[in-house]
Amino acid sequence: MDTKTNQKFLLSVIFLCLYMKTHVCLAADTITANQYLSGDQTIVSAGGVFELGFFKPVLKISDGNLLLFSKSKGSVWSTSATSSTTTSASGSVEAVLLDNGNLVLRADGSSASTKSEPLWQSFDHPADTWLPGSRIGFNKITKQQSQILTSWKNSEDPAPGLFSFELDPKQINSFIIQWNRSQQYWTSGPWDENSDKFRWDPEMTLNDVFNYSYVTNENESYFTYSLYDPKRISRCVMYTSGQIQQLTWLETTSPRQWNLFWSKPKVYAFCGPFSTYNEQSLPLCSCLMGFEPESHRDWSLQDYSGGCSRKTTLQCGNATGTEDRFLEMPSMSLPASVEDKHSSIAYAKQCTSICLSNCFCIAYAYSSTAGCSIWTGDLFGLKQLAPDDGDGRTLYIRLAASEFKNPKSHKRSLVIATVSATAGLLTIIFCYFLWKKTWGKGRKYGAGGGKNDAGLPLYRLRRILAATNNFSEANKLGEGGFGPVYKGILPELQEVAIKRLSKKSGQGHEEFMNELKLIAKLQHTNLVRLLGCCIEKEEMILIYEYMPNRSLDKFLFDPLEKTELDWGKRFRIIEGIAQGLLYIHKYSRLKIIHRDLKASNVLLDGSMNPKISDFGMARIFGMNQTEANTNRVVGTYGYMSPEYALYGHFSEKLDVFSFGVLLLEIVSGKKNASFYRFENSRTLAGWAWELWKEGRGMEVIDESAREACEPHEALKCMHVGFLCVQEDPADRPTMSSVFLMLQGNEAASLPLSKEPAFSMHRNHPRAAVGIPAVTSFSNNEITVSIPEGR
Description:
Elements lengths: L2 H11 L1 E4 L5 E2 L4 E2 L4 E2 L3 E4 L5 E4 L4 E5 L2 E5 L5 E4 L14 E5 L5 E5 L12 E2 L7 E2 L4 E5 L4 E4 L1 E4 L7 E9 L2 E9 L3 E5 L3 E2 L4 E2 L11 E7 L3 E8 L6 E5 L5 E7 L6 E8 L10 E3 L7 E3 L3 E3 L14 E3 L14 E9 L6 E3 L5 H9 L4 E7 L3 E6 L5 E3 L8 E7 L7 H32 L22 H7 L8 E4 L4 E6 L5 E6 L8 H11 L10 E7 L2 E7 L6 H5 L10 H21 L3 E3 L8 E3 L5 E3 L6 E3 L5 E3 L3 E3 L6 H6 L1 E3 H17 L15 H10 L9 H4 L4 H14 L10 H9 L40 E3 L4
Parallel strand pairs: 2-5, 27-35
Antiparallel strand pairs: 1-6, 3-10, 4-7, 5-6, 7-8, 8-9, 10-11, 11-12, 13-24, 14-15, 14-23, 16-17, 17-18, 18-19, 20-21, 22-23, 24-25, 25-26, 27-28, 29-30, 31-35, 31-36, 32-34, 33-34, 33-36, 37-38, 38-39, 39-41, 40-41, 42-45, 43-44, 46-48, 47-49
């Protein structure tokens, strides 16, 4: 093993963990010459923030250096520190784990405040993790990267993997992500010193949590970052997927967990070269036509990074007389970096000719506005988009002609296939009616068990009837717009919630299938988990995990039950709902707009953790889509934003508005709908806004939680709620910003809020708002659909 690999090996196997575990610990935070670290032994930083240990090797000090020994006692790595202060006497140095996560080799007895440089430090040799205070840098003297992040080989093997996060050697004030240290597929763009942002990815720095700094001099250039709040804990990780993620530690949630703050790039090349990523299918990655998995890789094991290679060599340059052809791939995201651009090309055929005449050209795309784009080398970052995704383009992949069937043979095969398919279809129809007449009674789709297209278990109706005691009233938990919900106990003694579509429901098959498709693909601790379904004898049933504490509204609006919701629980519920919305808006495989967020659609588990439910009205957005319109406005009055209720226009800002209303309900314990009971009354937000303006914000807080609440935290939540329910969608924050505001310590740093939407009296002369008089509303239990948008 060479020195460079050895360094990566050491720093990959070190565990830098949060919070102490049950291990045998050496004295304090230090390894001296008379000690070594092995097995379950660890050292812990002075403040108890970081803990260091190993999988199996032994770490000790020898001859003034840190040495790592294998199980067989052979040396596999050394710090190789050289300094005038280092002597052959190993007792003159010590290794110390600092509270910032840096493992430092220094002269014995020196301290962190000593100005002299350490003999060696782990911050100079990062593996896959970038901690605050460490650097990602480039050495101008050697013209080489001095600090980079390198992914693990896979989730189980910490050896160096295929992906790296480093500075761009051509433009060293930019970050790049590379595959195999050779193929760049993402860049942050250059650092703008005037705005302290990355030009092409400002989201990385648009926050009040991380403070990025770029330093450059004649010897080196590097980026580092710190935290505005020193008590916050964060790390940046280069994952085996090819994605860089910034994570923050949530100490106040239950359970405590890492929260994804941002990830880059949004569409990433973790499928490897010549493969395409499709979030609607499993496996997620597949080879392009004419390509096969590299080294016969098994993608069912979720190991996508190796990509694909050609089955047949291109004919360009060979005297075969056969010309290469192009595979048309519509609705694709284009490869990350364009090699050549011909903006003056006026026709697609010209673009085809240019690519064919260049033996290195392997793909092209053409549009009348962007002209002709040419790619050479491996293709990365391909993603199959939905047909209606506005960002989709047609990409033409170059293949050997032999990969395409002979046109005449293909036409003949097509005729045969059509005739066969027609005959087969008639046979199937005949058999279906015969089956339905003789055996089909009570054996419709779903009755036999197995799984459906969403990969969910299918339950027989007789199992559902047995679990709910034939849908008895005693087992009924409640009823919503979809229909009644029952508690059930399956034969394996698992408690479940069973939602049964009512024949009288305004919702139907479309909403049922929508919820089935969406929730099956969403996995988050703050989203309710769908366990299975049943479609039999005209019954449409969904089976969920059971939430023993029912829905939030049952506690929030009941004079007796609300005493169970102290301020600590209310704030955790607010945070949890925010995390769930942030996930579906930004970090899930599908970008989802819920469209019906309200107290009755937030369920509470045994520990009072919130879980968002009821995705029957939800809509899927393309990852780069920001807004849409509908002629069918659905949702619940009081939680709808003005632009949606009036015009059918919706975006993620609709969910933000609903969250703002819900947040104010949680803080105040008052139902928004109750403010519609009197002709001259206002909304909950309007009532709270008036008290807020008069400096009486504390009066908004529910009396049952007011005395024991944290005033600054409660007032901060109210402020965030007002920001969310502003009339103009552009004025409302995103859920990313909302989450940051809730996590921040200073309410004074929040932006000023304008007057909430719908806050004025109905007979107020403020006609510019354009809100029509509405005389009937659904209550908090029922979801309504308005047939036509106004």
